[in-house]
């Protein structure tokens, strides 16, 4: 019985790639140094899978930034502004597309389906001259083969690549991206031919867009593409991999009819309805890659239940055509439990990180082949039973309070227009008020202080003194820059979700459970294992201290319940909305304590609300109903004069703008700068928004410093569709990943642009 892994984490067990990338970007190491670190990581990953007995081991899932950008490089689809003149794409061009450079901005970045992973959005049009410009897929296959490992090269499929792209600037928005298929398929043919010549017997095309609601013309594109590739694929086993949701019936029919394709991979964890389609319509003689080990969460697999499902599937497709697989790439989970020496042993027994999931996949494959490891299965059953019966999982008072929430919609008593008037009387802000999103640069010294405090190398008194000094520095800088609504810079926080999880019951934390978000950016999601409550105030001390340092309004900074949920590894033994309601009640307590402490502006970030939107439209309404309701629960009890802000990160918000309005926040700050003001098109199309809004005026994910004129131009574009009295001026996200040498001039230019526009507006009256 064969086993397969869709993809694997790239950063390394101790984030080796992250540090190598940042060293290279800072000019402290060479390209050769970076390539050496990456080669060592790939070698160790392939060895790990080989040692675990995995038959179908992936290659070309390693990336220096993301797999879609790798495909853009493969196809030579470099936007002209980067000055690429052909040939093999090198690091300069590649990282300029991802991060921008001193003279040109980066390409747009957005979320990868409904995950916290990001990708760089291809910019395409009729004039793009595609060419085979990156031989990475073939080189990595050969690299593995030289180590004695015959891998399955993985490519982003041609149709999904185009469907995930956008028309380049200056190209009509109605341009059909799928019309470019005939231009990119010759390059795919070249790659496939080179892989065949190098000895590949399998190739994997990731076509995750097949789980979306696709119109018939888009489904037809899959038929056309693989018909065109059929002769090139001859002699190879071609696997089409899907993940993250059910494959709709029409897409399933299209997929299983594709020419030249011998195998289909399905997510049977998040796509349980696909099982019914497999049982009734799976084509004879084809391979089924059954994704039963969860690639997106960290809970141990129910091996007995998975084996039962596999036995059913074996009866449908045959023993020699069934392959045990992960539900998706393991990129979305942590690397290895072995590195968690301080994690509570009971909770640890309930978990499986990427390294353990590889073992689970192989154990299932062996059991199906008649070689069941009884001890391994027994230990798994015992761990599942322990989790189910553990008293630390359930808090009856919390469950009762959360259940009672369904009796109200938790709206503030006064409409937003009246609230904004009351708030303005209290805050007395200028038009186009300036603010930032929350965090300020996390310096080496600041990280050292937090690390030493955690390790008990410095006292609590020394820690508090150091953090207060950092807050005072950030406050004084903002006053010098003349920012209107201040933040304390979050020096006490390593991560916006981890910080709150550490102070809430029902959460557990890892030492090395890092997951890639984009580029070198890694996050360490908390583990929600039980019912959630707030034992004591979490931020009041620091926010009060910061407010005491200035006469200007100081924002209290919180993470919202939906974002805490979506950026955590969430318990899978109750519906996600029930966990979210529990978190909402905890945040509500914190909001009300901040208000009592004299904090007049409170930001409750819902950076990941859009990210959690189900991939299928039929499931949108239910999710948005409980997600928006959860946000309103957090602040329904505050006075009209308390201004509630929220912030949302990279995503396509246009399709949920009415739900955003329904959140009933007083001010929303939202990503806009890196997506060609895509968000503003909603307002051009007539959507009326009466609350305060701050579409980000510059991209903090790039080291590039925008000029005053550039920011002023962005503000003018916003003023063309938004009322002057509701527009805020702010960066598009927190500043923790930037350096002060970048932040100071960028914020100075931002404030100067706001003042310039104020002067112009005043003189126009």
CATH architectural category of the largest domain:
Alpha-Beta Barrel
Taken as a percent bin, the fraction of beta residues is 5-15%
Strand elements, count: 22
What's the number of structural domains? 2
Largest sheet: 8 strands, parallel
CATH topology descriptor of the largest domain: TIM Barrel
Structural class: alpha/beta
Q: What distance separates the N and C termini? A: 77 Å
**CATH level 1 class label of the largest domain:** Alpha Beta
Arithmetic mean of pLDDT: 94
Uncertain segments are none
**Judging from the principal axes of the Cα atoms, what is the shape?**
globular
Number of helices: 27
Helix content: 40-55%
Estimated radius of gyration: 26 Å
As laid out across the biggest beta sheet, the strand order is 1-12-11-10-9-8-6-2
Pfam families: Meth_synt_1, Meth_synt_2
Domain Cobalamin-independent methionine synthase MetE N-terminal: 3-315
Protein name: 5-methyltetrahydropteroyltriglutamate--homocysteine S-methyltransferase
Keywords: Amino-acid biosynthesis, Metal-binding, Methionine biosynthesis, Methyltransferase, Transferase, Zinc
């Amino acid at each position: 019985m064969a086993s397969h892994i869709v993809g694997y984490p790239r950063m390394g067990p101790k984030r080796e790639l992250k540090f190598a990338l940042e060293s290279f970007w800072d000019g402290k190491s060479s390209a050769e140094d970076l390539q050496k670190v990456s080669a060592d990581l790939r070698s160790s990953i392939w060895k790990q899978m080989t040692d675990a007995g995995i038959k179908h081991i992936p290659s070309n899932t390693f990336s220096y930034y993301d797999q879609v950008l790798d495909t853009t490089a493969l196809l030579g689809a470099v936007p002209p502004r980067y000055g690429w003149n052909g040939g093999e794409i090198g690091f300069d061009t590649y990282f300029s597309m991802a991060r921008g450079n001193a003279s040109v901005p980066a390409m747009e970045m957005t979320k990868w389906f409904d995950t916290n992973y990001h990708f760089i959005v291809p910019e395409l049009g009729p004039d793009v001259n595609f060419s085979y410009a990156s031989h990475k897929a073939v080189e990595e296959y050969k690299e593995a083969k030289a180590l004695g490992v015959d891998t399955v090269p993985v490519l982003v499929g041609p149709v999904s690549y185009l469907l995930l792209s956008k028309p380049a600037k200056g190209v009509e928005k109605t341009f059909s991206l799928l019309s470019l298929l005939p231009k990119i398929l010759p390059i795919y043919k070249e790659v496939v031919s080179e892989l065949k010549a190098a000895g590949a017997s399998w190739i994997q095309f990731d076509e995750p867009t097949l789980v979306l609601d696709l119109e018939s013309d888009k489904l037809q594109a899959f038929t056309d593409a693989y018909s065109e590739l059929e002769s090139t694929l001859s002699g190879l086993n071609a696997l089409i991999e899907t993940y993250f949701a059910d494959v709709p019936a029409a897409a399933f029919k299209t997929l299983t009819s594709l020419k030249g394709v011998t195998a289909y991979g399905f997510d049977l964890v998040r796509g349980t309805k696909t099982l019914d389609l497999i049982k009734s319509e799976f084509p004879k003689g084809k391979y089924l890659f059954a994704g039963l080990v969860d690639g997106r969460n960290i809970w141990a697999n129910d091996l007995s239940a998975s084996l039962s499902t596999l036995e059913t599937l074996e009866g449908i497709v045959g023993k020699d055509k069934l392959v045990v697989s992960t539900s998706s790439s393991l990129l979305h989970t942590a690397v290895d439990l072995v590195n968690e020496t301080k994690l509570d042993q009971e909770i640890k027994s309930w978990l499986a990180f990427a390294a353990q999931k590889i073992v689970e996949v192989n154990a299932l494959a062996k059991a199906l082949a008649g070689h069941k490891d009884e001890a391994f299965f027994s230990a798994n059953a015992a761990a599942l039973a322990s989790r189910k019966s553990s008293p630390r999982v359930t808090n009856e008072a919390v469950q009762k309070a959360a259940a009672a929430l369904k009796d109200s919609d938790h709206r503030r008593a006064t409409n937003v227009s009246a609230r904004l008037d009351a708030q303005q009387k209290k805050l007395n802000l200028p038009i186009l008020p300036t603010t930032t999103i929350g965090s300020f640069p996390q310096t080496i010294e600041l990280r050292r202080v937090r690390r030493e405090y955690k390790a008990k190398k410095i006292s609590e008194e020394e820690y508090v003194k150091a953090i207060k000094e950092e807050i005072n520095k950030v406050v004084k800088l903002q006053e010098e820059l003349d920012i209107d609504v201040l933040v304390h810079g979050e020096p006490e926080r390593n991560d916006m979700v981890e910080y709150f999880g550490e102070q809430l019951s029902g959460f557990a934390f890892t030492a090395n459970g890092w997951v890639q978000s984009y580029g070198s950016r890694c996050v360490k999601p908390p583990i929600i294992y039980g019912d959630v409550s707030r034992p004591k105030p979490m931020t009041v001390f620091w926010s009060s201290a910061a407010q005491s340092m200035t006469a200007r309004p100081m924002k209290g900074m919180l993470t919202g319940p939906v974002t805490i949920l979506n950026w955590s590894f969430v318990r899978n033994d109750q519906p996600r909305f029930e966990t979210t309601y529990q978190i909402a009640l905890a945040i509500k307590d914190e909001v009300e304590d901040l208000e009592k402490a004299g904090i007049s502006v409170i930001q409750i970030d819902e950076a990941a609300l859009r990210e959690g939107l189900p991939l299928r439209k039929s499931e949108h309404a239910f999710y948005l109903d409980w997600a928006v309701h959860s946000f309103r629960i957090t602040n329904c009890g505050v006075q009209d004069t308390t201004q509630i802000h929220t912030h949302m990160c990279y995503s396509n918000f246009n399709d949920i703008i009415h739900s955003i309005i329904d959140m009933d926040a007083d001010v929303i700050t939202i990503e806009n700068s890196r997506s060609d003001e895509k968000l503003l098109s909603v307002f051009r199309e007539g959507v009326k928004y009466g609350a305060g809004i701050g579409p980000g005026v510059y991209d903090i994910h790039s080291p590039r410093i925008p000029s005053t004129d550039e920011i002023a131009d962005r503000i003018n574009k916003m003023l063309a569709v938004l009322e002057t009295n509701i527009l805020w001026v702010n960066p598009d996200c927190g500043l923790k990943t930037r350096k002060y040498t970048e932040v100071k001039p960028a914020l100075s230019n931002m404030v100067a642009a706001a003042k310039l526009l104020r002067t112009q507006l005043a003189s126009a009256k």
